[in-house]
Amino acid sequence: MLSGAFQQNNHAQRTQGQLGNDLFERRTMKSVLLDAMFKYNGWAAMMSFMSRTTTENAITFNPEDLAESNYAFVGNGFDYQLSYNTRSNYEFIGRYSIQKVGEDIKALTPNTKEYSIGLTKYIWEHSFKLQSELTFDTLDFNDGTSRNNWYLRFQVEIGI
């Protein structure tokens, strides 16, 4: 499967286009999304690319207090995932994600790398499942420092 999408949000008033906090000035945002997926005999491989740009500087300032600002999130990222679903309906997942922020906002938010492993148990098709995931991320800040975080997630999904 291959797919792609392009979105242009003219004069957006929020940091993520339609969502997020209010900007102090409107910005036109352009987003590109590309996906590829391959499945065969229990194996699945996926890759996604995401990019958002603005036609002007992404940072906006409060005209009444120039010390106060907000920004449209711009940059790009890749997400890669490989999984295997066994005959007994256990799925093993490995994921790597990288996010690079745009030049306009690199002093305000870090670049991110995430490594995840996960396990899913499908109890009744895709409608009832148990999922767990362990994630390690690295945040690389513009001043040369970095911070590492661990996350453990457990989820029960009951769908229709």
In words, what does this structure look like?
The structure is a single chain. This protein is mostly beta strands and 160 residues long. It contains no helices and ten strands. It has strands at 2-14, 22-40, 43-54, 59-62, 65-71, 75-85, 90-101, 111-124, 128-140, 146-158. The strands form two sheets. Strands 1-2-3-6-7-8-9-10 form an eight-stranded antiparallel sheet, with no helix packed on it. A hairpin with a 4-residue loop joins strand 6 and strand 7. The model has no long low-confidence stretch (mean pLDDT 94).
Task: Give a brief description.
With about 160 residues, the protein is an all-beta fold. It has strands at about 1-15, 20-40, 45-55, 60, 65-70, 75-85, 90-100, 110-125, 130-140, 145-160.
Counted by DSSP, the helix tally is 0
Query: Percentage of helical residues?
Result: under 10%
What's the alpha carbon Rg, rounded to whole Å? 19 Å
Structural class: mainly beta
Major sheet characteristics: 8 strands, antiparallel
What is the terminal-to-terminal distance?
25 Å
DSSP summary, beta strand count: 10
Tell me, what's the shape?
elongated
Strand content: over 45%
Element-level helix/strand string:
EEEEEEEEEE
Overall average pLDDT: 94
| Poorly predicted parts | none
Spatially, the strands of the biggest sheet line up as 1-2-3-6-7-8-9-10
